[in-house]
Amino acid sequence: MRSTTPRGRLALVAAGLAAVVLAPLASTTTAGAVEITGARTLSDSVTVDFAKKPASTSDVHLLAFNDFHGNLEPAGLNIYGRFAGGAAFLAKAVKDKQKQYGRGEVTVFAGDNIGAAPLVNALFHEEPAVIVSNAMHVDVASVGNHEFDKGAQELLRIQKGGCAADGCTGAPYARPGRTPTNVYPGADYPYLSTNVVATANGKPLLRSTWTKEIETDKGREVKLGFIGETLQATPTIVTPSGVAGLSFLDEADAANAAVKKMQREGVTVPILVVHQGGFQSGTPTLNGCAGNLAGSDIEKIAQRLDPSIKVIVSAHTHAEYRCTITTNGVTRLITSAASFGRVLSDVTLTVNDRTGELVSAAATNSIVENALNAPGAGVVRQEDPSKADPTVAAIVAQYVKGAAPLANRVIGSIQGDLTRTATGESTLGDVIADSQLTATAPAAVGGAQIAFMNPGGIRTDLKVSDIAAGEAPGQVTYGEAFTVQPFGNSLVTKTLTGAQIRNLLEQQFAGCGGQLTARTLQISKGFSYTQTPAAATCAGKIGTISLSGTPIADGTSYRVTMNSFLATGGDGFTVFNAGTAATGGGQDIDAFVAAFTAAGATGIAVPPLDRIVTTG
Question: Cis before residue 551, ω within 30 degrees of 0?
């Protein structure tokens, strides 16, 4: 890890034309009111000064990204009409800025660096994403919900190093400035878990905070303090066994407690790096705040933060924005950098050379481009090697080569696009639920009659136009299928009554004993129901429920399949916990692959979306 106490002096860095300088918002904001604003275009100037500018200042830069999810390869990733993302290209963008800013920068990511990753990363226990993060000299990170996908003990291994149960399958492991090792070395940067503590004693799972001292142009050392958190609702969206024995504290309360402690230790610039965020509610722009973040989870956190926390690096929603949030007379800068390494945030902190206090802040989101051409129908990406970091490109190539025999195997084809959605029936959800029903229908492996799939477990679409090298239109490789379902969940079949199934369907709606936001379970063929989402009561939201045309009876028992995540109450679907006579099955990805084999040369057809009927 790079030194946390660099001795070099900061050069004053002028704000570029693409930067938005954040200086004063109206001082007439009434107590308790919330004002959210930001740039609509790069030429907009949205300013907020935190203090009167003194005679002498120095600039510090935060280079921030989030929700990388182990996307080592750029594949067809794109944003705003540009091919973007991929580890080597993100590393080049980061390293170029690190060289430009010298010792006056800190590189951070705001969680979900690993988990829900493509095969090339997941096959090697998520280790490659950490190795490339080491190579791009990340300084500090917050944990995200997906850092807990494999449980707290595995997260500790990811941080500290050591081999997984089946060995160090990702060896040799590259190390910056050192010879490679055959033992996974762990992360060179600290993961922070300010609001994740052991239930028994309140001790943080990982480090709570981290500081970096930077010397200004006038020779004064300024202490930057980093608070790293994940969303308090993490236990509702990861496997419950993975967070057993841990408590996830309120984000604002934990941050406020941490900042008080840091202030006693001489920190003058506290920074919150939190895996929680929001969305631009209007038409999003790369550097905008269209429609603002009003009502979002991150806005609710910002309302309750200590006034000294004026800069927030956010994440989780895979959205991009740069906004200011003003509440109770305090204005804060907040950024987010989309996902998958497609965007890099450059946050400029201007500090008082004499006192070390934060004077003002600026932020710019930039696209991490990787190609010579632009995406479009039938367009094959033409890589631009000049935009890639050669060291990280070599690391990626190592793991791509290792995964290739499995990743590039064609498993079948699709007749049309299979897409996903979080709040309704989807074609891809239908296909996955069907595959799980087929895999567990035989009496010896469960005797399933119905299968449910959680929408959050479906990570990407399958499209006819997604064509890799040597692949025909509509063909699907194992690697593509794995990217759709990357969690390695096993299938579980339980007995539920008709009344429990009705309660389960009610839990799809926010406020009905399960969800914080609406989530629609994907259902297998033969099972159907009507719903009225606008109904005033939870019971009124679900109408008739049928299996093969016969109404589901409250007192009748049914064999129901779900993945192991849902089986323990994941995503707030606690009714699954009440199921009895559990029978374990195979892996969800194996069931999905088997569906392609069964479809044969004609490929999987696009389902008609007639299983969930909405009324009212």
Answer: no
How far apart, in whole angstroms, are the C-alpha atoms of residue 141 and residue 113? Answer: 9
C-alpha distance across the termini of the chain, in Å: 58
Q: Measuring CA to CA, which residue among 94, 28, 23 is closest to residue 61?
A: 94
Q: Of 588, 604, 273, which Cα lies nearest the Cα of 437?
A: 588
- Which is more confidently placed, 376 or 603? 603
Q: Report helix, strand or coil for 532.
A: coil
Residue closest to 81 by CA, chosen among 316, 286, 279, 278 = 286
Q: Answer yes or no: are the C-beta atoms of 395 and 131 closer than 8 Å.
A: yes
* DSSP H/E element including 428: helix 427-440
Closest CA to 355 of 211, 218, 209: 218
DSSP string of 232-269, one letter each residue: TTGGGTS-GGGGTTEEE--HHHHHHHHHHHHHHTT-SE
Q: Specify the length of the chain in residues.
A: 616
Whose CA is closest to 476, among 460, 458, 463, 459?
463
Q: Cβ neighbours of residue 390 under 8 Å, at least 6 residues apart? A: 88
Give the H/E segment covering residue 347.
Answer: strand 343-352
* 275 has pLDDT over 60: yes
Q: Which of 388, 314, 287, 322 is nearest to 85 (CA)?
A: 388
Note the Cα 459 to chain centre separation in Å.
11
The model carries a pTM of 0.86
Q: In one letter, which amino acid is 253?
A: D
DSSP code, position 230: E
Of 191-200, 234-243, 278-287, 481-490, the range with the highest mean pLDDT is 191-200
Residue 352's H or E segment, with its range, is strand 343-352
Q: Identify the pLDDT of residue 21.
A: 44
pLDDT (mean) for 468-490: 90
**Does residue 38 come out as left (phi exceeding 0), alpha (psi in the -120 to 50 range) or beta?**
left
Residues 6+ apart with CB under 8 A from 312: 271, 272, 273, 274, 298, 302, 305, 332, 333, 334, 335
* Tens digit of each residue's pLDDT (9 = 90 or more) over 127-147: 999 999 999 999 999 999 999
pLDDT class of 600 with cuts at 50, 70, 90:
very high
Structure-block tokens of residue 245: 């024995």
- The domains located in the chain, with CATH, are 20-390 (3.60.21.10), 409-614 (3.90.780.10)
Mean pLDDT, rounded, for 331-348: 97
Q: Which of 615, 338, 564, 558 is nearest to 454 (CA)?
A: 564
13 pLDDT above the threshold of 50: no
Ranking 106-110, 119-123, 218-222, 481-485 by mean pLDDT, the lowest is 218-222
For 405-414, b where at least 16 C-beta lie within 10 A, e where not — what string? eebbeebbbb
Nearest of 48, 132, 40, 131 to residue 85 by alpha carbon: 132
Distance CA 228, CA 159 (A): 14
In this prediction, residue 329 has a pLDDT band, given cuts at 50, 70 and 90, of: confident
Question: Residues 279, 289: contact at Cβ < 8 Å?
Answer: no
- CA-CA distance, 133 to 401, in Å (whole number)? 19
**Helix, strand, or coil here: 551?**
strand
